[in-house]
């Protein structure tokens, strides 16, 4: 069946600003793909990420280069040969999943999971800042079951302790975004144990994480920037206890599902995460995250406005998408 492909850029203002160890931003700039065939349209959203050499222009160019093959009927399994892993392929792959579900008249989850998807506890992100400011954010969200705390400075001890004191009953995960060093690693991990942190994401820079093989890990350590594809996983097992699967890194739902299955085979714990995007970016990830150990799909909660229709968030829960949004 012949398809028509359209791609566009959309901007969603962030409520305040979003700060990690690499900098701050005040809006989410996303690329949306729409695939139309047989009177139905499937959608997919991606977030170009400069850390991986992506920009809005480069992602749009990748999609445009693949347009002839996509419109001619390229299948999921063939996308990996036509497009590199990354944001552009994610938008196309998710749009294809959505379109196929609509053409078949059955929900996408039937091809992802054995059971109907359920609401999930998602993390809420506390941006990096001074300890007092981070404590104030944590106190405001202390009713949430899970907080994800951005760290990644030379001395995060006061930040970790301040957040724990402000949110004494929340489960806490830390995301250092490659910001720690071999010299600060042991001390920071000890503070994590002291403050009952459940998991630390990517403490050391990707490619410079050898120290994780030799340090005693009394808290789970999760690979993020160090892992993109299922082929990466076997080599990480001696350094990491978990992996963070993101659709934009994997290049779509197809490869992300392969990562999920391979991680389970290797005994790695699974976190499903996101970039800062709208509900359309989160919707397929909610299906992927069924059964995950940690879920971090709070992108829309960080925005000043979301798209309509949107995912339903209630308390600490994110609910599966309706077909009007995706799948």
Automatic annotation (TrEMBL):
What EC number(s) are associated with this protein in UniProt?
A: 5.1.1.-
Pfam families of this UniProt entry? Answer: MR_MLE_C, MR_MLE_N
Q: Which cofactor does it need?
A: Mg(2+)
Binding of Mg(2+), residues: 175, 201, 224
CDD domains, sorted: L-Ala-DL-Glu_epimerase
InterPro entries in the record: DgoD-like, Dipeptide_epimerase, Enolase-like_C_sf, Enolase-like_N, Enolase_C-like, Mandelate_racemase_C, Mandelate_racemase_N_dom
Q: Where is the catalytic site?
A: 150 (proton acceptor), 246 (proton acceptor)
Q: Which UniProt keywords apply?
A: Isomerase, Magnesium, Membrane, Metal-binding, Transmembrane, Transmembrane helix
What does the record say about how the cofactor binds?
Answer: Binds 1 Mg(2+) ion per subunit.
Q: Looking at the keywords, is Ligase present?
A: no
Where does the Mandelate racemase/muconate lactonizing enzyme C-terminal domain start and stop, copy by copy? 131-222
The record's section on Gene3D superfamilies has: Enolase-like C-terminal domain (3.20.20.120), Enolase-like, N-terminal domain (3.30.390.10)
What is an example of a GO molecular function annotated in this UniProt entry?
A: metal ion binding
This protein's superkingdom? Bacteria
Family membership: Belongs to the mandelate racemase/muconate lactonizing enzyme family.
**Database matches in PANTHER family:** D-GALACTONATE DEHYDRATASE-RELATED, ENOLASE SUPERFAMILY MEMBER DDB_G0284701
UniProt name for this protein: Dipeptide epimerase
């Amino acid at each position: 069946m012949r398809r028509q492909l359209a791609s566009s850029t959309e901007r969603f203002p962030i409520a305040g600003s979003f700060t990690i160890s690499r900098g701050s931003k005040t809006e989410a700039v996303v690329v949306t793909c729409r695939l139309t065939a047989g009177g139905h349209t499937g959608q997919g959203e991606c977030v170009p990420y400069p850390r991986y050499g992506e920009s809005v222009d480069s992602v749009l160019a990748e999609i445009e280069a693949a347009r002839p093959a996509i419109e001619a009927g390229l299948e999921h399994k063939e996308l990996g040969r036509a497009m590199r892993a990354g944001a552009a392929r994610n938008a196309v792959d998710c749009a294809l999943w959505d379109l196929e579900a609509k053409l078949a008249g059955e929900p996408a989850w039937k091809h992802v999971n054995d059971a109907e998807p359920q609401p999930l506890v998602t993390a809420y992100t506390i941006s990096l800042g001074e300890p007092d400011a981070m404590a104030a954010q944590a106190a405001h969200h202390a009713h949430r079951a899970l907080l994800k705390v951005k760290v990644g400075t030379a001395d995060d001890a006061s930040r970790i302790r301040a957040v724990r004191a402000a949110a004494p009953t929340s489960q806490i995960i830390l995301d250092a975004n490659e910001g720690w060093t071999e010299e600060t690693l042991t001390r920071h991990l000890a503070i994590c144990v002291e403050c009952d942190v459940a998991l630390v994401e990517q403490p050391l820079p990707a490619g410079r994480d050898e120290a994780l093989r030799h340090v005693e890990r009394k808290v789970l350590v999760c690979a993020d920037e160090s892992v993109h594809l299922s082929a990466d996983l076997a080599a990480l097992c001696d350094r990491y206890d978990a992996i963070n699967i993101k659709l934009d890194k994997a290049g779509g739902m197809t490869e992300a599902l392969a990562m999920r299955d391979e991680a389970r085979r290797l005994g790695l714990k699974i976190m499903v995460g996101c970039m800062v995007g709208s509900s359309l970016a989160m919707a397929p990830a909610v299906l992927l995250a069924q059964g995950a150990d940690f879920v971090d799909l709070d992108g829309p909660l960080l925005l000043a406005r979301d798209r309509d229709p949107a995912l339903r968030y209630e308390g600490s829960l994110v609910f599966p998408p309706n077909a009007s949004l995706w799948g």
